[in-house]
Amino acid sequence: MRLEASQQQLLSRRLRPLGYALVAVVGLILALTWVAVQTQVTLAGFLNGESLWSKAQKQAVIDLDEYATHGRPSDLASFRRNYAVLVADRSARDAIASGTFVHAEVEAAFARGGVIPEAIPGMVFIFQYFTGMPYVREAVAEWRSVDASLRELEVIANRLEQDYRPDASHPPEVSDERARIATLNNYIEPRAKAFSLNIANGASWLGRVLFFTVLGVAALASLLWLRMAQRILAGIRGTEERYSLLFDSAADAIFMVDQESGRILDANDRAAVWVGCPRSDLIGLQLSSLFAEGSPETGEGLLRTAGGGTRPVETQSSLVEWGTRQVSQAIVRDISDRVAMEQERKIAAEALASIAEGVIIADADRRVTTVNDAHTKLTGFPAQVMRRTRFDATRTLPDGRPLPQSLWDNIAAGDNWVGEVESRRADGTVYPELMSISTIRDREGRPQHYVAVVSDITVRKADRQRLQHLATHDPLTGLVTRSEFERRCAEAITRAAHERGAVAVLFVDLDAFKVVNDSYSHAIGDALLMRVAERIRAQIAPHDVAGRIGGDEFTVLLSDLRSREEALVVAEAMLAALARPVDLGDYELYVTASIGIAGYPLDGNDAVTLIANADAAMYVAKTEERNALRFYTPKMHADARRRLKLASELRQALLRNEFQLAYQPSIEMKSGRIVAVEALIRWRHPERGNVGPDEFIPIAESLGLIRQIDQWVLATACRQLMQWDEARLPPLRLAVNVSAGSFGHPDFLQGISQALESTGIPPKRLLVELTESAILRLGEDTQRAMQSLHKLGVAVAIDDFGTGYSSLAYLKLPAVEYLKIDRSFVTGLPGNPNDVAITEAMVAIARSLGLHTIAEGIETEAQHEFLLRAGCQEGQGFLYSRPLPPDEVARLLAPKTTGGKRLSLVPPKRA
After folding, report:
1. What secondary structure does DSSP assign to 639-659, as a single string?
2. When comparing pLDDT for 621 and 21, which is higher?
3. In this structure, what are the phi and psi dihedrals at residue 404, rounded to the nearest 5 degrees?
4. Is the preceding peptide bond at 601 cis, omega within 30 degrees of 0?
5. Residue 909's pLDDT is what?
6. DSSP assignments along 159-210, one per residue
7. Per the omega criterion (within 30 degrees of 0), is the bond before 398 cis?
8. In this predicted model, what pLDDT tens digit does every residue of 616-639 receive, in sequence order?
9. Quick count: other Cβ atoms within 10 Å of Cβ 718?
10. Residue 482's CB: how many other CB atoms inside 10 A?
């Protein structure tokens, strides 16, 4: 037997959504049908309007021609009536196209044009949103194409009206006017027919679209309804099986008991397993006979199990109708785990009471449910006072702010929180507290309780503060140490950057302090340093910082300034204060100081830089004057000294023959042959090792040495090329980089001529590489210099094209025959679409102008293949070869075979 319910009510509830869905489907089809009808009305309006417009256009031409022939006012009046229809439709169309129009005015204009009133709103909607629809777009275009011709008809009508006036000075030119009218009619008539045809085709197309749309939606809605019906009917069929499955697979024991006799009518599998007998043996037994303790109807008790044991259970009963019989459904739940948990909770409560730290347990709303005795002793709040009070109500962050919501969000997300808070005792006093908060979660993972462990850290915090003060302050003077000064300086710089203010660092160094230590004692020196520290502190504001970073070196941080120069007042007062006599008991000492000043943002953006620059300024003040102050200037920095040293060494580099040339091959993309080399300068410094061109070339330019270096590179490279020729190696083109300073010098061309004459190298084998910036700096003399190179027969390559000014006018200059594609565009090939587009554009421009393209920085096979397909002729890069010394280039070029065979060059191996 099984539990019976009201099948009729259940069936009604299940089928109700099916009925609603059917109503929705019918309503949707009716709505779509109404839309189709309205659209057909609109299309009828379109066709009607088109017919009226075409008739009005034709009649207007006829009337105007008659008026031109006979001059009858009735013909002119008829023309103006028909023209008014054309103007009304056109004004409505243009108003809608503008996007800002008044619906009432547009509808009135269409009405004046004779459009069916019911179709006017639909026409406005189509013109406003669907002018791009097939056929409508073409019809509107044809309509617009005759606007000028129609306006010219009006002009002709006005001119004829003037000529036919009785007081006209001359008769109308009838034949000319009629000829013009006929011309305009010949232009308008085919477009009017095309307009009519497109309107008719558009109506036909839209009708088909509406039909198939309504048909498709109806079919789809019907399919969805049928699918829904199948699912509901399948659900109804499976209801009984599901109820049976739930009954038999329930985790609790379920007994169906006759309410009158108390005998078991049915039981599930779980009940049979717990009792230890088949389900059939349970039928007819008194339910009460299965319980050792407790009521079989409700409450907790002990259920007898196989082997004489018992199981703690909880019973819940409810009355149901089983046919005509009243049946009690008893659900018996195993509470063994709960009993064990209660025992564990009792043990935990006893352990909680014995913990030395304060413990708070709160619910999900952070309201206290339990506190232990240690918390009561710590805060003075009894447990009954704390209960139902939010435990964070008596606690704030150390700065007085309440505990932020983000803290609770993080805890709710699964993190534990440990931190310092400020807690209030019952007597109103506060103390620092270390609090750890964790959560107890329910089965869904939501916080069910918060557990907080707190302890008083007053003594620990005081000890930590003393240690922190010792770590961040000088034990002799009490001023901050270097690390602490740098930290506070960094914070001041951050604030100044946010507020657009300024910060100044004063570097104070005592003059001749060593004499004091040597003449008196270190104790006197320490006493003097303490007095100096006191005087420095007396000259600064409370929010400013003074530090001692060395024996007699002090630093001062002045913040909240508008400019660096505001520090001058404090520095001058500090010089005056330090210059006053210092009374040290038995001695009266006179000391002075030198002060250097550096400020943010002018002199540096970080603490270390400001301190270093202030130190450099102090050194200048001490060197030049003493008892003085100096503001930092860039020339004071040690980098200037290093630059001067490097410049001095750079002057000697040419004399000592420290420069060397490396040659990077340029490869013909199609064949892999080496067709050229580029000469690249290297500085082999005897102490520094290899110094990169990026480091010494700018210095050479600023010192005026770049011309000498360029001349050396040109002469050395040409001699090397001559040596390769003498060794009967394949002829190569030699590329030499030339700076802007050399290119613009009057002797530049003479130097090239001398290098070519002394080595016998043909001019066409020399390539001068210039950057866009070098050409730009030469200005108006660029044309002259390029023309001279062109006459000499030396070609020019535009290097790094696209990274600078990128003027295409450079590509038309005389002598420019090569265009080098910068490595910044090659690196992203072929994956970066921007680099692909730029590179292809460069190659296309070069090809159109007859220029030879060379790509730099090729490092992968994919880049090589892409550039080859794009049409680039030559390439350089580590894929083929790194820059090589001359002997390795010679080995690379040496032929592998001898005899009468054609010399073949060894292409570099590519992976």
Report:
1. HHHHHHHHHHHHHHHHHTT-E
2. 621
3. -70, 155
4. yes
5. 46
6. HHHHHTSTT-SS---HHHHHHHHHHHHHHHHHHHHHHHHHHHHHHHHHHHHH
7. no
8. 899 888 877 888 999 998 877 655
9. 24
10. 17
Assigned token pair, 817: 């025959």
CB atoms within 10 A of CB 60: 25
pLDDT digits (tens, 9 = 90+) for 40-64: 666 666 666 666 667 777 787 888 7
Mean of the per-residue pLDDT values for the chain?
A: 82
Residue with tokens 């060197």: 623
**Whether the predicted pLDDT of 773 surpasses 70:** no
Average of per-residue pLDDT across 509-524: 80
Select from 9, 40, 45 the least CA-distant residue to 119: 45
d(CA 905, CA 883): 18
Q: CB-based contacts of 738: which residues, under 8 Å, 6+ apart? A: 710, 714, 748, 768, 769, 770, 774
pLDDT for res 42: 66
Q: Residue 401 carries which DSSP code?
A: P
Task: Provide the residue count of the chain.
Answer: 911
Torsion over CA of 219, 225, 231 and 234, rounded to 10 degrees? -100
What does the buried/exposed string (b/e) look like for 98-134 if buried means 16 or more CB atoms within 10 Å of the residue's CB? eeebeeeebbebbeebbbbeebbbbbbebbeeeeebe
For residues 563 and 110, which has the higher predicted lDDT (pLDDT)? 563
- 415 versus 565: the higher-pLDDT residue is 565
Cα 815 from Cα 787, distance rounded (Å): 7
Over residues 484-490, mean pLDDT: 94
List, as own/partner pairs, every contact residues 870-875 make where C-beta atoms lie below 8 angstroms and the sequence separation is at least 24, other chains included. Answer: 870/839, 870/840, 870/843, 871/843, 871/844, 871/847, 872/669, 872/821, 872/839, 872/843, 873/668, 873/669, 873/670, 874/666, 874/667, 874/668, 874/669, 874/675, 874/676, 875/666, 875/667, 875/669
DSSP class of residue 751 equals H
**Mean pLDDT across 80-102:** 75
pLDDT bucket at 179, cuts 50 / 70 / 90: confident
Evaluate if pTM is beyond 0.70.
Answer: no
Element (DSSP H or E) covering residue 571: helix 567-579
Give the HSE-up count for residue 217: Cα atoms under 13 Å, Cβ half-sphere: 17
Count other Cβ atoms within 10 Å, centred on residue 732.
Answer: 20
**Predicted local distance difference test score (pLDDT) of residue 851:** 93
Rounded Cα gap, residues 680 and 662, in angstroms: 5
Helix (H) or strand (E) holding 853: strand 852-855
Distance CA 875, CA 864 (A): 8
